[in-house]
Amino acid sequence: MARTRRARTAPCAGASLRARGAWAMLRAVCAAAALSAPFVVPSAARADGDVLRIGIITDMSGQYSQGNGEGSVAAARLAVEDFGPTVLGRRIEIISADHQNKPDIASAIVRNWIDTKGVDVIAEGVNSAVALAVQAVTHERNRIFLISGSGSSDLTGKHCSPTSVHWTYDTYASSNTTAKAVVARGRMTWFFLTADYAFGHALERDAAKTVEASGGTVLGKVRHPFNNPDFSSFLLQAQSSPAAVIALANSGSDFANAVKQANEFGLMQSDKTMVALQVTLTDAASLGLDVLQGTLFTESFYWDRTPETRAYAERFFARRKAMPTAYQAGVTSAITHYLKAVRAAGTTDSAAVMATMRATPVDDFFAQGGKVRVDGRMVHDMYLMRFKKPSQSRSRWDLYELVATVPGDEAFRPLGEGGCPYVQN
User: Fold this and answer.
1) CATH number of the 172-304+383-411 domain
2) What is the pTM of this model?
3) What Pfam family is a match for this entry (predicted)?
């Protein structure tokens, strides 16, 4: 037993000391990596090559844990249940870890997984800064990365990777659809309240481009720290702006806190229009329709949209006592598509599997006629939604009404405009 513990700890310690040279970070990285240990089989099984291992790197303890976290691990298990327990004669196993919303911790965990635990494919990501860091590792190690929850459109733009698929949504699709709809309703002047990290910057940038291309004007912006509890100073700046629209370019608890405090400031009842550029179902359920009613937003998946989404949601609810978010549904869909590609290709070789994933349409509960492009973007329909009035809701999770279905080729950024170096212009 002592020898096993040393074998697990040494690679983590070495990687951390080389990367940071700090004992505090060493302890944090090793503690985070240790979270996956209960799911790890003995090293003999890894050496025999009889296991296909899927690593879920996610936020288990921070502001995205409700919409992702353990629910995303459950979503991965649903994918394996649907597909079957083995592929190419190998037993499918899932391990997971908490990246704590820290790119360096996430990178160390994923590198350790690949180098010492034989992980074949990585899924989730959540935080965009984390996903960008993990994508660099998986590209370097030639492993496939199935991204769900992370939003930055740079993941398929200037930082694209030939071994990644951005599955669920991105900042371009979310902001493009919503901004066009709001400007079309005559709300022409905008002010952005933006999370100050990769996701928020990309969401603000993509929305601002759409606003201006549609004839609107951006009058100002303010950026707030990640995981910020007090929005009073930022909301005062937004309130004092002559802009007709206050756009929230954030998510998770930042979005929830901003909306709660905006309601306390009276902004939700003012002549200004509050726009949610990214919404998570669990945050919406916590906030309630009294606050959110009438707000437009764009979503990639909703549990109550079709018979297929409802059937999936019932299975997920039986395990988690909550309806699945788009991010969690995306994990199930992406892993299922990956496993089917492995079986069809007859190998786990990343190049062969990626080629098969691109050649195979995505037709499941999540997307119909979806396609994986060379830049890694999975293109599928998006949905312009509106929060229901409280009187229209039948249950805690009955929150959205469909306004319009937006075809994927209209919702997502055109292939040649992202700056991905693997796209032949």
Assistant:
1) 3.40.50.2300
2) 0.86
3) Peripla_BP_6
